[in-house]
Amino acid sequence: MKQEPSSTTLALGAAVRSLRREAKLSQEALGAKAGIHPTWISQIENGRVNPTISNFFLLSEGLGVRASELMLLTEELDRQRRTQPRAGR
Which of the following CATH numbers is that of domain 7-77: 1.10.260.40, 3.40.50.2000, 1.20.1250.20, 2.60.40.10? Predict the structure, then answer.
């Protein structure tokens, strides 16, 4: 049975996607800047994987932001996800 991604994992993916688009980078371009395979970036953005702390720093560097900025945006998006009413409730 496949486990659903956590709210935080989805928020991190949304934060990476948002910052990547803001920087006008493709997944391939971000991958090249960060030294991370673009397929893996796609998996992060879609909430399928969590990066290690080392890769978190590489991602933030590739995005041109401090790791703390990426973490703060992730926290904000996670908080929004947790407070939004869910369909069917």
Answer: 1.10.260.40
pTM for the model: 0.89
Sorted by where each begins, the domain ranges of the chain are 7-77
Host H or E run for residue 53: helix 53-63
**Helices marked H in the chain:** 7-22, 27-34, 38-45, 53-63, 67-83
Q: For residue 69, give the 3-state DSSP assignment.
A: helix
Confidence of residue 5 (pLDDT cuts 50, 70, 90): confident
Whole-number pLDDT of residue 84 = 81
